[in-house]
Design a protein that fits this description.
The structure is a homodimer. Chain A is of the alpha+beta class. Chain A has seven helices and eight strands; from the N terminus they run αβααβββαβββααβα. In chain A, the strands form two sheets. A six-stranded antiparallel sheet of chain A has the order 2-3-4-6-5-7, with helices on both faces. Chain A has a two-stranded antiparallel ribbon with strand order 1-8. In chain A, β2 and β3 form a beta hairpin. The longest helix of chain A is centred in the middle third of the chain and has 19 residues. Chain A is globular and about 50 Å long. Chains A and B meet through β1, β5, β7, α5 and β8 of A and β1, β5, β7, α5 and β8 of B. Chains A, B: This is HIT-like protein. Chains A, B: Pfam families: DcpS_C (PF11969).
């Protein structure tokens, strides 16, 4: 019998994890590229390197190597594909994978048409292996990118399109990989030209910085 | 004591309502503007007028006038704001309103920079009245447009940003009003130039039409 209850234990648990699971009020922010350059980017650069150490370790083959589904070591278009901790790895309609780019792109704001080969590489190789390994067709997948993400090393979320919706998949926090590729092919600077609207929890350190700027 | 259970009775109930609430498999479609012109638009035009008769009646002041919150009769930038049937009209964090444009714009594909005044009018007047009437600040609102919508007369959904996420708010079905205004101000033809990726249920009549075309 399949279990209907799943418990997640986070250890060691930091203040960041606690913030992530506390119910807190959200506020809408419309961030222009200038706001990104003046407030967001300095904030991202001020974050301690330890915050993405786990990513670096995976990319350098120092951690979680047993879990790796794809390791494409190309310096420009390479990426690592592995299961997200949210997936129990048994129920296919809950499938949740992460594709982390080899190249240290900070976030969606840094993407240009130069990154289309990387994005297409993530899309096609992931679609292929997910079909072969889990029997899930490409048109059953939802691939998306968060802005703002919980860590600033470019990565793509891959879920079965029947996964129950969460706030993390909502328009304004989530951008479909297909849309990103398409928009970049129309305008290489679209993520510098456009404003991005999203909702930040009151506990998010960027909120005060950006709210003052609007 | 506030009730935790809400029952929705739909009467008379059509096959469209039943389809909407049945759990069914979804498939990803990436629709180019050519696919829109060749398949989607003829499909929309083939729909019986009765499908949007309720909208016409509201706009012509023949129905639901007691519910109307804003009636801006400007032929170009006007709209009607009223509560959505999903809202119980008491719980503010479940607030759900609809803004229906006076001008018969079919859907997001038909928008150009000419519509920015309409979109900004919907945004600013709705923000103002929601603050005055319900005490909800503008930065607590999520305004979005569906593609594909359930009826093809341009309308904007307005919810409190704390409303529980549903599939209808997910990236790929939902486009933030702020993003639409911003993208149109960068490229008046963006919704003709870009492909739109979304997920259609197997029961949606457009699925077969578009799937064959991809």
């Amino acid at each position: 019998m399949e279990s209907n209850v799943r418990m997640k234990v986070i250890y060691p648990c930091t203040i960041l994890h606690i913030r992530k699971y506390l119910k807190s009020k959200a506020f809408k922010i419309t961030e222009t590229y200038n706001m990104y350059l003046e407030k967001t980017l300095p904030f991202i650069k001020s974050l301690p390197e330890e915050r993405t150490l786990w990513v670096t370790k995976i990319l350098n083959k120092q951690a979680e190597q047993d879990d790796v589904i794809i390791l494409d070591e190309d310096e420009k278009d390479g990426f690592v594909l592995l299961p997200d901790s949210k997936w129990d790895r048994t129920n296919m309609t809950n499938m949740y994978l992460l594709a982390i780019s080899k190249c240290p792109i900070i976030c969606i704001r840094e993407l240009s048409s130069d990154h289309i080969p990387l994005l297409k590489n993530i899309k096609s190789k992931t679609e292929e292996i997910v079909k072969g390994k889990y029997g899930i067709e490409a048109d059953q997948l939802r691939m998306f990118v968060h802005y703002h993400p919980s860590y600033y090393h470019f990565h793509v979320h891959i879920v079965h399109c029947d996964v129950e919706p969460t706030k993390a998949m909502i328009a304004g926090h989530s951008h479909l990989l297909d849309d990103i590729i398409d928009l970049l092919s129309i305008d290489s600077n679209i993520f510098k030209n456009r404003a991005l609207t999203f909702y930040l929890n009151e506990s998010h350190p960027l909120l005060t910085l950006l709210k003052r700027q609007e």
